[in-house]
Amino acid sequence: MSELANMHIMMNYLRGVYKVLEDEWQKSAKSLGLTQAEQHILWIVSLEQEATISRIAQLGLWDVSTVMQVIKRLKEKGLIHLLKKDHDRRISYVTLTEEGEKKQKLSGEGTYSVYRYLQNWSIDHGKQELLLELVNLNRDMNEHFHGKEYVEWIEKTGRQLRETVETR
Fold it and tell me: CA 131 to CA 18: how far, in whole Å?
C-alpha cells in the first residue's frame, strides 16, 4: 500500500475517534450548562489551584485571547474569581468559586465510551500491554508536539487524581 494511502487511512481513523471524544466531551459540558472550553478551564484551574491566563492557555493549547473570552464567560456565570496579587498587579490569577468547584466535580462523574472501549478491548483480546504502549505513544507524541512541560503537567495531575481517588 502506498504511503499516501496509509496516511489517508491513519488520519481518518484518528479523526473518527477524536470526533467521538469531542462529541462526548461537548455533551458532558452542555449537560452542566458549559461549553467544552469552559469545562476544560474549570479542570485546569482546579488542578492548578490558581492559574494565570497564560498558564491556562499553555495547558489548554489555546491562544491567550481565546482564554480571555472563556474566562469572561466563566466569571459572568459566577464560576471563577480573578485575583491580582500585591507583588505584581499586572498578572491576573484565576481560582474557582464554590459553584465552580461544584461544576468541576460534577463534570468528572461522566464516562467516555472511547476510554471504556479501549479498556474492554484490551481485556477481551488479552492486550493490556498494548493499552500501556498506546498511552506511551500518546505521551511521546504530545511531548514532541507540545513539549516536555505539557507532558509533565499531565503526568503530575494524573498522579494527583489517582491519589485523590485512592484516599476516598
Answer: 17
